[in-house]
Amino acid sequence: MHFKSLLMSTTLGLSALSAQAVTAYSQDFESGVLGAEWSGAGAIQGSQGLSAFGFGQQHLKNDGSSTTQLNLTGLAPHTTVTLSFSLALWDSIDIGGDLFQVAADGNFLYSSTDFGNYFPGDNISHGPGVHITAPFTDFSTPNYGYNSFRDAAQAVTFTFAHTGSTLQVNVQFPNTQGAPDEAFGIDNVMVLTNAVPEPGTYALMVAGLGLLALARRRRR
After folding, report:
1. Whose CA, among 53, 106, 199, 208, lies 20 to 30 Å from 187?
2. What is the largest CA-CA distance in the chain?
3. Per-residue confidence band for 195, with pLDDT thresholds at 50, 70 and 90
């Protein structure tokens, strides 16, 4: 193999090794059993019509203002974390006054009153992530379950610096009017870590680059 090709493949190998994503946790709540890693508010309930938008048959629904909390331990060494989940907005959440918050280890990833599915000027839901359900046409349309108000969903992703072996994620709708008027739910929860390579493995790759460079010099 030509030296440049060897160098490129080795360099690409280093890059891939240093940025390897590892699935540290995933949960779709389809078992119907809430694991010990979950605490606070929320219960597994049917996702009803949202199953047509990537939700499973069940999701974790929070009908009140208390926090839903995920606690992970034993994370492998890493430098960043990517947190993703599907977010349900149930029943006429008023944009412009309802606060929604997502925090990791006490640091807000999202904290805003730009959250809701009622009174939007653009006929879509607002909040973290991207709107994934149909546009609104009236007060009760589209309705995907539970009460006779409009509903919506967002696909949410956050990537943030993180190095600890534990992670606490809090999701909260602190000033909700509560079900049946408004509530939220989450599904398809996934936590990815950007893995740090083992020192010995990384050193071998670097040494390989050095040997390639030395061999090329001697051939000249």
Report:
1. 106
2. 79
3. confident
Which band of pLDDT confidence, cut at 50, 70 and 90, is reported for residue 100?
very high
- CATH number of residue 127's parent domain: 2.60.120.260
Q: Which alpha helices (H) appear in the chain, and where do they start and end?
A: 3-18, 199-219
Reading the block at residue 76, the tokens are 């492998």
Q: In a 10 Å sphere around its CB, with 0-12 CB exposed, 13-18 middle and 19+ buried, how is residue 204 labelled?
A: exposed
User: Which residues, other chains included, contact 16 with Cβ-Cβ below 8 Å and sequence gap of 6+?
Assistant: none
Distance CA 180, CA 190 (A): 28
Which tens digits make up the pLDDT trace of 17-75? 445 899 999 999 999 999 999 999 999 999 999 999 999 999 999 999 999 999 999 99
Does 12 map to a domain?
no
Q: At residue 143, what are phi and psi to the nearest 5 degrees?
A: -115, 125
**Burial (Cβ within 10 Å: 0-12, 13-18, ≥19) of residue 32:** exposed
DSSP letter assigned to residue 135: P
* 39 assigned to some structural domain: yes
| pLDDT at residue number 20 | 87
